[in-house]
Amino acid sequence: MTDQPTTPAPTGGAAPQRPEPAPTTPAAAWQRLREGNARFVAGESRHPNQDASRRRSVAGGQHPFAVIFGCSDSRLAAEIIFDLGLGDAFVVRTAGQVIDDAVLGTIEYAVENLHTPLIMVLGHDSCGAVTATHATAQSGDMPRGFQRDLIERIMPSVLQTRRDGHDDVNAAVVEHTKQTSGRLLEQSRVINDAVSRGEVAVVGVFYHLQDGEAELVHGHGPWLPSA
Fold first, then answer.
1. Quick one: which of 186, 161, 185 has its CA closest to 173?
2. Which of 65, 66, 121, 210 is deepest in the core (most CB within 10 A)?
3. DSSP 8-state class, residue 221
C-alpha cells in the first residue's frame, strides 16, 4: 500500500495585499474616503494596506492622498473610520481641531512636499472641546492653563451659532468645522494657492459617533464634492 501524498503545510503569513493606486485628484481622494467610510459603517472594513508588504513598500517614502485634520477625541481614529492603511493619510489632530501655526505648517508640508490633493477638517458630535466652549459662553467661567487657548479659538463658532438662533453643541461643531475650513485658506497662502489652481480641495466633515457616518458639511475649491 502506497502512502497518499500530503498537502504541504502553510508557510505562515497571509498573501500580500495588492494596493490600489493612490488617488491623485481631490475628487478621487474624496471618493476613496467615502467608500472606506461606507465599509466601516456597514461593518465590512477591509483593513487595506496594513500588511508587512505595505509596511516595507512605504518605508522609503510616503505619498498620502489625504490630509485629515481632526479632533483628538479617542473615538475619531481616522484610519479606522475611513478604512485606511499605512501611507494613505497624513493625520493631524488637536482638541476641537483647533488651528495654530504648527498645524498650518504641518498641512502646508503635506500640500507642498507630498502633493496631497485633499484636506479634510473632521469634527464630530458631542465634541468635548466645543461643549466646554459652549459652557463658557453661558457661564463666563474660563478653564485654567492652556485649555483657555482652545476655548478662545472655538468661541467665534459658538457665538455665531447662537446668533443664528441655535443653542446646540452639535450645531456649533458644524459651524466650527466650516469656520476652520475657511481659516485654512485665509491664513495659509500655500493652501489657498493650491486650491485656486484646482490641485487641492478642502472639505469639512461631521462624524456621527453612534453610526459611524462621515457627513460632508462644507467644501472649498473649484472642485466641490457632492454629499
1. 161
2. 121
3. S
